[in-house]
């Protein structure tokens, strides 16, 4: 039962600003309507006074008297309206400030609950562990990518096998093309003589000359 009463009291305190603002707005609405009515009454009495100013001064004076009363009441009503508007503004501002403060308190409690037993030392420890695991991961990745698969090859054996292949290719080319003579062997080869060709040409000329002379003697 005490908890119910306590909850009801807390709810009543929470609703108090809203109820106060609601009642003030109702009163403000009534005063604004009265203000409008008084303005209409003043205009009406002013019209009566103007109508009777030359024909019935008593009626005109009575109308001006009523106009003055309405004017005085209107001033009081306008002042009351200003006061109520100020009160509404003050209550709304105070209510907003209270709600803002409550929200900030709730935020502080939430942050405190989230942080819990969290301390700077624990944060530093966690970051150190993360850095260690990151470094370990990089070492593992480097070991995996750089480690050779199988036994390492002997570079000297590879070079020796390559030279053997080059020699076999050279021997195969020499068998296909024959030995290539060197400069000394080429110079010792006998040169082809042009003497028989020249001798044959000379004999033909002599035969031709002999035939020509025989023809001349026959004549």
From TrEMBL:
Q: Does the keyword DNA-binding apply?
A: no
Q: Which InterPro entries match?
A: Snf7_fam
User: Where do Polar residues bias regions lie?
Assistant: 190-200
Broad class of where this protein is predominantly found: other
Comp. bias regions, Basic and acidic residues = 209-219
Q: Name one GO biological process term.
A: vesicle budding from membrane
Coiled-coil residues are 21-94
What family is reported?
Belongs to the SNF7 family.
PANTHER family per the record?
A: CHARGED MULTIVESICULAR BODY PROTEIN, GH13992P
- Stated name of the protein: Vacuolar-sorting protein SNF7
The lineage, from the top, is:
Eukaryota, Fungi, Dikarya, Ascomycota, Pezizomycotina
